[in-house]
Amino acid sequence: MTTARRADPARAGNPALLGVAGLAGLLLVIELAPRLGLVDERHLPPASRIAAALAREAVSSAFWVALSDTLIAWALGLAIAVGAGVLAGLVIGSVPVLRALTASTVEFLRPIPSVALIPLAVLLYGSSIGSTLLLVCYAAFWQVLVQVLYGVADVDPVAFETARSFRFSVWARIRHVLWPTALPYVFTGVRLAASVALILAITAELVIGSPGLGNQIAVAQASAAVPTMYALVVVTGLLGVLINLLARTGERRLLAWHQSVRGEVAL
Amino acid sequence: MLEVKGLRKVYRSGSREVEALRDLTFTVDNGELVCLVGPSGCGKTTLLRCVAGLLDPTSGDVRVDGKAVDGPPPGMAVVFQEYGRSLFPWMSVRDNVELPLKQKKVPKQRRGELIEQALDAVGLTGTESAYPWQLSGGMQQRVAIARAVAYEPRTLLMDEPFAAVDAQTRADLEDLVRRLWKRLKVTILFVTHDIDESVYLGQRVVMLSSSPTVVQDELVIDLPAERDQLTTRADPRFIELRTRVYEQIQTAKKNAGK
C-alpha cells in the first residue's frame, strides 16, 4: 500500500476516478455488445434495460420482501455461526487436549462444501428459511472457528505471564488478554464468514427455493424475464460489496490499536 | 524477606534433559536492593520466573515472608525485559496501569490517586491517554515500571528491564529505580547481565555461574547510598567492585568450559 502511494502520482492517477472509469467502461461494453449484435440480446440485454428492470424491481414490494428474507437469513445464520464459532474457538483453543482431540475432525468437516448438505437441508426443513440457515451456519462457522483458533494460539506469552504475575483471575485473563489478542482474527473470520454466508444464502434460495433473492432469480429465469434476472444478480453483487465495506469499516474502528490498522507511528 | 533455598530446575522435553539451575541459595532482606548478575544463558530468567511463581522448580523452594511460593504471590510485581509485549497494546497507558489495580479490587478513587502518583514518579504525567506503541522504548518501560509501582508491591522483580533500551535511557532508568526504591522502601531483586549496572544499582550483588547454575559469589556493594552516574562510576571503589564482579563472572565462564 505504501509503495502504491509512493508511486509516481502522475502515472498512477486518482484511484477512485480510475475505478469509476473502469465501471463505466464495463457498463458501456454491456450496453454496446448486445446492441451491436455481438451477443444475443435474449441472453445479455443491454445495460440500460437491466437498469430499467432494476428500477421496476425497486418499486415492487415482492422485491423488498425477498431482499429482507435474504438479509434475515444471512444475518441470523451469520450471528449463530459467529457466536458458536467464537465460543467453540475460545474453549478449544485454550484447552490443549481439546485442541488435539478436535484437530483432525475439524480438518475433515471443514472442507465439506456446504452445498453438499443441500439434500440434508431439504430433508430437515423443506424449502423454509431453516434450509438456508443450516447451509449458511455450516459454511460460516468454520471460517470463524479456524480464525479464533489462530487468534488464541497467538497470545503473547509475555502478556499472559504479566497477567498471571498480577494475579488476574482466569476470567480476567480471557477478557483482557485472550479476547483482545483474538479479536483481529475474529474480525477476519467474521469478514470471511459474512461473504460466504451471502453466497450460501443465495445458493440455498436458488437451488432449494426457500424465500429470498435467489428464489426471485430462479423465478425470473423460469419466466424468461432476463433483464429482471440480471437486475437481481446486480443486487446480490451490491449486497456483497456493501457487506465487505461494512465489515472493513467496523474492523478499522474497533482495532485502531492493532498493527495492521495503526500503520507506521512516529517516535 | 525473600528466601531461595536449594533451587533446582530441570527442563525436560522428551528424553532430553537440560539442567538450567543446579542449586541456588540466597536471601533478599526486606527493603534490600539485590542485583543478580551472571553470564548470558545462565538461567537468570528461569530463576526469576521461579521466584515470581510463574514456573514450578524441580526441587528446592522459594519463600516470600516465610510463605512458600506456589503461584504468583500477592504483593509482588514483575517488570519484564520485553516491555513492548508486556504492556497491552489495546489499552491506553492509564488503562494499562489501572488494570492490575482493578484486579486487586482497589476502590476507584484510590486507583486514580495511585495511577497519578505512579506516572508522576516515572516522569510520564500527561501520557495517560496515549497508547504504549505511540511511546519510545524507554517511555514504554517507564509505563511498565509505573504499572508495577502503582500496584504497591512489597517485592519488585525486574528481569533485565533495561537490556533493550539505549545507553542514555538506561542511565536515566537506573537512577529512576534507585529513586523509587529509596522512596517506596520496596524489596527489589534486579536481574541483569550488565556488570556495571549491577554494581551501580545494588546494595549487594549475587553472581551466578554458567549453566547449570549455582551461586558463584556474593558481594556487598559498600558505595555511598547517594549514587550518580558521573561520580559513582568514577569512584575508585566502584571500579574495584566492578573488577571483582567481572573476575568472578570470567571464572564462572572458564569453569563452565572445563
TrEMBL record, chain A:
Pfam hit, one: BPD_transp_1
Annotated ranges, domain ABC transmembrane type-1: 67-247
Location within or outside the cell: Cell membrane
Membrane-protein topology: Multi-pass membrane protein
Keywords: Cell membrane, Membrane, Transmembrane, Transmembrane helix, Transport
Transmembrane segments: 12-30, 74-95, 115-141, 182-208, 228-247
Coarse class of the protein's main subcellular location: membrane
Similarity section: Belongs to the binding-protein-dependent transport system permease family.
Name by which UniProt lists this protein: ABC transporter permease
Protein source organism: Actinoplanes sandaracinus
Lineage: Bacteria, Bacillati, Actinomycetota, Actinomycetes, Micromonosporales
From TrEMBL, chain B:
Domain ABC transporter: 2-235
Domain of life where this protein originates: Bacteria
SMART domains for the chain: AAA
InterPro entries assigned: AAA+_ATPase (IPR003593), ABC_transporter-like_ATP-bd (IPR003439), ABC_transporter-like_CS (IPR017871), ABC_transporter_ATP-bind (IPR050166), P-loop_NTPase (IPR027417)
Keyword annotations: ATP-binding, Nucleotide-binding, Transport
One GO molecular-function entry: ATP binding
PROSITE patterns, per database record: ABC_TRANSPORTER_1 (PS00211), ABC_TRANSPORTER_2 (PS50893)
Protein name per UniProt: ABC transporter ATP-binding protein
Lineage, highest ranks first: Bacteria, Bacillati, Actinomycetota, Actinomycetes, Micromonosporales
